[in-house]
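Ticket #4471: structure output looks truncated?

Reporter: J.K.
Steps to reproduce: submitted the chain below (172 residues) through the standard prediction queue, then opened the result file.
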Amino acid sequence: MADRGLIVMAAIETANRILGVDPGLNITGYAVVERRLGRLALVEAGMIRGRSRGDLAARLHEIHEGLADVIATLKPDVLSLEELYSHYERPRTAILMGHARGVILLVAQRHGLAIHEFAANRVKQSLTGHGHAGKAQMQRAIMAVWNLAEPPEPPDVADALAIALCCGRSLG
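Returned output as attached by the reporter:
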């Protein structure tokens, strides 16, 4: 089973729960937010950390199991994630991320979640006003939005929070 590091806020009632996911083969960030009285509230954020090194199939299985556990526990209605982006200098990275995204989409589909995908620059623009914001800027913006004392670590958790927030705002 994957290791789930968590940031937890008490959930009052479930309405429009959105699961934001930042895919990664070693660390997959996730965040669940829900609409409460017309506003988005943080339910939980954390990571699914893979333990298998070098074995792609084992790592994909860990993502599957960890995400299925998050969905079963937190019961989101929607899954949101970034569209696949490929930099011409790193095609192998895009192919490997495609595997992770495929598993994530499969888990969401199997659990009956609506799926919303967003371009990375749209997620960054919606949070910081700048479509090319860096990791540190995203972490600071997430700290401000959710009134966190410290930046979410690792940055994958902040990215998942940003993706969930972007989706929540777009579904308004």
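Triage note (M.O.): checked the attachment and the full token line is present. Residues 9-15 have pLDDT under 50 and may be disordered.
Status: closed, working as intended.
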